[in-house]
Each structure stands twice: as structure tokens, then as C-alpha cells.
Write a structure and sequence with these properties.
14 helices, alpha+beta, Helix Hairpins, 533 residues, Beta-Lactamase, phosphoprotein, membrane, binds adenosine-5'-diphosphate, 6-stranded antiparallel sheet, 5-stranded antiparallel sheet
Length: 533
């Protein structure tokens, strides 16, 4: 009689196939358990049988020369219908399910069968561990228990096999990623930077052979000017578990410098040692493209500056009326042309400043000097601009009496550029009849220069982009108001190069405050104050 199908047959089969065990080779551990079952139960045959869709396949078969039979004649196909119980058939000729079974009637001459189902945690009965005899018999309780225990061991083996396969698969996946990644990956000791492991891309990047790399540490392939920053990054990774993105150079075996971008994570080796995985991108191409772009911008800007200066000078002379009065229509057209020529000049000056900053060619002449005259000068030079927007400018000072005059160690010209940027932005974004206030606020041994406006403020989405190059919150609106999107990026670098900090406060819709903070340099003790970046 054919056995019914288990209620979870589809899932059971899917799981069984996923084990990848059907038609696999012999494995000693399964044979050992079958032998043990055979001797404990004193039968001539023991089998680890797995029930496939239309066959039973034997992972192990002791005492029987078969590797599989059809599912129709399988005793085990009946056993798996009750996953929690042993199926014991003491005399198959007396059992209506088996009395006409070809294995009973034919040469195999099976009479006795006891099978313990192999059941997964999900309740999938894959097959059985069974013992078989050619004469009717019984098993005592101890033998039945042993058979059940051994079936559990077979199941453990199947699970181990499954876990092992999953592990191998994921290891293979990782290894492929590690070996094929277009990113160099290295593992170093945290304490001395020696290499532990690295992928082929790192060997390609650095030019040394794998044996040579194992004798090096990161300092050997890093230009000495990065020593301090490297140290800093190591402290960071030790404290926070990661570092980067960090741009630096490595020294190739041939002596050339390779620009790279690093990101690292800290791990703990099984012996407790701290190690760092670092992912390294070769950014040579990007750097080359940036260089070409910078050179191009710089060359174009230089070429444009001279003719533009003469155009705006000539237009300035014309609109000033010094060469005689102009017809009204012509005057207004020339005024527009003059304004735009000045705007272009500003853009070109910003671009040239940016290029100099990037190339590290801009010098800063930090001199200890009183702050107030510089601020007053800035207000003075931006007054005409503010007037043209119908915006008023005012200065407010809030400082300790004994610290006046407020002394700072800065480059006056560069600070005026920063203030011109803050003030012109504040003016540009102010409503008509608005007020822009410049406040000098002493905060302990620092002085904050704040430019406050009543404009629309900074939207939440734009906040983090504000100090990036060529960014404007709303390019159409800013285009109407003029500007290059470079001003704040340049200001930030200027302020930081003068040992200050830059920032802003703004509630959208309620104006903005842009500020720069510098250490005071009034007292001898102020000079030892470490700059805050
Ligand atoms: P721009 O030359 O365009 O003014 P900036 O770098 O100085 O370049 O400013 C970048 C952008 O930041 C501006 O276009 C504007 O969107 C925003 N911004 C700067 N200052 C203010 C302000 N006071 N109020 C509102 N938005 C501002």
C-alpha cells in the first residue's frame, strides 16, 4: 500500500533538496551511526534513508546492496508520516500496509522493520534511520530508545553539514569580493601598523610583492608629513571604532606618490589584539581631473581678469559722469553693464582665491592688531552696497572694558573679505528697509563677530551644504541677487587659517546670523591659548 504524503510535503522536499545531500558520496560518520544501530539492535541491515519525491535514497546502507528504491515500496515513506514516533513492523507479512510489498514478497525477504524519523527543527521529516531483518522479531525498550537517540545524531550531522555548506558559501562570497574588489583592503596591527593581510588590489596599488609588504608597516609607505595626522587617525579609530574618509598619499615602490582615500574600522582579533581593516580607494584619476579643472579655471580666470578690469574701469568712468553726462537711456544701460562687469570681476577674484587656497599658494599675514577699526572699515566699504538695497548697517560692541581695544592676531585684508561676504549676503537677503547688525561679543577669551539679518534664514535642507563650494540654496533666487556660491567656502578657509571658527545660527523665516570667532590676543596669556578649529 502506497504511503500518503506528509501534510508539509512541498516545504519538506524543498528543505531536503536545499541540504544538497541527495546523491552525495559516502561519509564515514553516517556509516558509523548505521553500524552502531545495526549492532545495538542486532539486525543484519541498517539504513539512513531520505525520502525524495519519488524514491528513497540511502545516505548510508549497511548490509544491503542498494543505493535507492522507488518510494512506492518504501517502509520509511510510512515512517515519516508520524515524525514523533518510531515505526515498528515486527512481521511485515501480517501488516496490511506491507504484506504485498515487493520487498517482502521478493528476494529481499524483509520481515522486520524499525525506523526512527529524522526530523528538522521546522518539523520536516527527511527520512529515517532504520534497522531491517529478514525474519520477524521485536526490539526491547533499550534498543528502541537507542535507535531514536542515534536518529537524533544523524539529524545533528545533517544540520552540521548544512551549516558547514552555508559557511563555505559565504566564505567563498567574501573571498571573491576580497580578491576581485577594485578597492584595496588591508588589515594592520593597531599598535605598530604592521601588515597582517591585504588583497591583490593593494599589491597592485603599492607595487611591492606580497612578501615585501609583510615586512613593512604603514609608516614605511607614508610620506613623513602625514605622521602626525596618521597618529591622530589611529587615536580616533581606537576611541570610536572607525576613521575616515581620510585623504593622504602612499609611496609606491617606484617612489611615486599615490593619492588615496581611506576608511577604517577597528576589530578585535580572537586573542584580544586590536586590529584595523582599512579600505583604500585609489583617487589618482579624480585628482588628475581636479587638477585639470583647477588649471583650466585658473588659466581662464587669469586671461579674463585683465580685459575685464579695463572694461569695468571704462564703464565705471562713463557712469561716474566724469567724461560728461550721458543720455538717460544710455546711462541706465551702461549702469547695468557696469554692475555686471563688477559681478564678473567678483566671480573671477573668488575663483582665483579658491584656486590659490587649494594650491596652498595663499599667504596669511597674521598680525596682532585692534579689531574694531577693521570692522568699522568693513561697514564703511559695504555701506554703498547696503544703501542700494535700502538696508541699514550698524555696529554693536559688547566686551569687557579692560579688554578694549579688542586685539586679535589676524590678516586684516582676509578678515575684511570674510566680513564683506557676510555683510553682502545679509544685505542681499534682507527685506527692503531691513537692518543688518554687526555685533562684537566677547566670550571669555574669545571674540565673536556676528552679522545678523532679518532675511528668510537658512532652510534645514541647505544647512549642511552652506560652506561647500558653488552652493546656493535656491539658484534662481540667488541668481537674481547675484553671487557665486563660493563666498562662504572661501570665508571658512580664511577664518580657519587665522585660527578661528566659522558658523551660523538660523531659524528658517526668522533671519540668519553668520559669525566668526577668534581668540583674543590682548593679554600675554591669551597668546598661549591653543587655536580651536
Ligand atoms: P554667494 O556668492 O552665492 O552669496 P555664498 O557662499 O556667500 O555665495 O553663499 C551661498 C548661499 O548661502 C547663498 O547663495 C544663499 O543661498 C545662502 N546664504 C548665505 N548667506 C545667507 C543669508 N544671510 N541669508 C540667507 N541665505 C544665505
Amino acid at each position: 500500500m502506497n504511503a500518503a504524503l506528509p501534510y508539509n510535503e512541498l516545504q519538506r522536499l524543498a528543505h531536503l533538496h536545499a541540504l544538497n545531500i541527495l546523491d552525495s558520496g559516502r561519509e564515514q560518520s553516517f556509516d558509523d551511526i548505521a553500524c552502531l544501530a545495526m549492532s545495538l539492535c542486532r539486525t543484519p541491515i541498517a539504513v539512513v534513508s531520505l525520502i525524495d519525491s519519488d524514491r528513497q535514497w540511502f545516505k548510508s546502507c549497511v548490509g544491503l546492496h542498494a543505493t535507492e528504491t522507488s518510494r512506492d515500496v518504501s517502509f520509511c515513506a510510512h515512517a515519516i508520516l508520524r515524525p514523533d514516533d518510531l515505526l515498528v513492523v515486527e512481521d511485515a507479512t501480517q501488516d496490511p500496509r506491507f504484506h504485498d510489498n515487493p520487498l517482502v514478497l521478493g528476494d529481499e525477504h524483509i520481515r522486520f522493520y524499525a525506523g526512527a524519523p529524522l526530523v528538522s527543527a521546522e518539523g520536516h521529516a527527511f527520512g529515517t534511520l532504520c534497522v531491517i531483518d529478514r525474519v520477524p522479531r521485536r526490539l526491547d525498550q533499550l534498543q528502541l530508545n537507542s535507535l531514536q537517540l542515534l536518529a537524533r545524531q544523524v539529524m545533528q550531522l545533517l544540520q552540521l553539514r548544512e551549516a558547514n555548506q552555508a559557511l563555505q558559501l559565504s566564505q567563498q562570497k567574501l573571498l571573491t569580493l576580497y580578491n576581485q574588489a577594485p578597492v584595496a583592503i588591508i588589515l594592520n596591527h593597531l599598535d605598530d601598523g604592521r601588515f597582517i593581510e591585504f588583497n591583490p588590489e593593494f599589491v597592485r596599488l603599492i607595487g611591492y610583492s606580497a612578501e615585501e609588504i609583510l615586512r613593512l608597516n604603514t609608516a614605511d609607505i607614508t610620506p613623513s608629513e602625514y605622521a602626525e595626522e596618521d597618529q591622530h587617525k589611529l587615536q580616533r579609530v581606537a576611541a570610536t571604532g572607525r576613521y575616515g574618509p581620510y585623504e593622504k598619499h602612499y609611496i609606491h615602490k617606484d617612489g611615486s606618490l599615490i593619492p588615496v582615500l581611506l576608511n577604517g574600522v577597528l576589530i578585535e582579533a580572537p586573542d584580544g589584539e586590536q586590529q584595523v581593516w582599512t579600505f583604500i580607494q585609489d583617487i589618482s584619476e579624480r585628482k588628475r581631473a581636479e587638477q585639470i579643472k583647477n588649471d583650466f579655471v585658473s588659466a581662464v580666470s587669469h586671461e579674463l581678469r585683465t580685459p575685464l578690469t579695463s572694461i569695468s574701469g571704462a564703464l565705471g568712468l562713463l557712469v561716474s559722469g566724469k567724461l560728461g553726462s550721458l543720455p538717460e537711456k544710455m546711462d541706465s544701460m551702461l549702469t547695468i553693464a557696469h554692475k555686471n562687469a563688477l559681478r564678473l570681476s567678483q566671480l573671477i577674484n573668488d575663483l582665483l582665491d579658491m584656486e590659490k587656497l587649494i594650491a596652498g599658494k595663499m599667504g596669511f599675514d597674521l598680525k596682532r592688531q585692534p579689531l574694531v577699526p577693521i570692522i568699522e572699515q568693513s561697514l564703511e566699504s559695504n555701506k554703498a552696497y547696503a544703501d542700494s538695497f535700502d538696508v541699514s548697517l550698524s555696529l554693536h560692541i559688547c566686551a569687557d572694558e579692560q579688554d578694549i581695544p579688542l586685539m586679535v592676531a589676524i590678516d586684516a585684508h582676509r578678515l575684511q573679505q570674510v566680513l564683506a561676504n557676510f555683510i553682502s549676503n545679509a544685505v542681499k537677503f534682507s527685506p527692503p528697509h531691513g537692518q543688518v547688525e554687526v555685533h562684537l561679543i566677547q566670550q571669555l577669551r574669545e571674540i565673536k563677530i556676528a552679522v545678523i539679518d532679518q532675511g528668510p534664514g537658512i532652510s534645514d535642507e541647505f544647512r549642511e551644504h552652506l560652506f561647500q563650494k558653488f552652493t546656493q540654496a535656491d539658484s534662481s533666487a540667488s541668481r537674481q541677487r547675484g553671487g557665486t556660491g563660493l563666498g562662504l567656502a572661501i570665508s571658512k578657509t580664511f577664518v580657519e587659517r587665522m585660527n578661528g571658527r566659522i558658523g551660523f545660527d538660523s531659524v528658517p523665516g526668522q533671519g540668519a546670523t553668520f559669525f566668526a570667532i577668534f581668540p583674543l590676543a590682548n593679554r600675554a596669556s591669551d597668546l598661549s591659548v591653543t587655536p580651536n578649529h
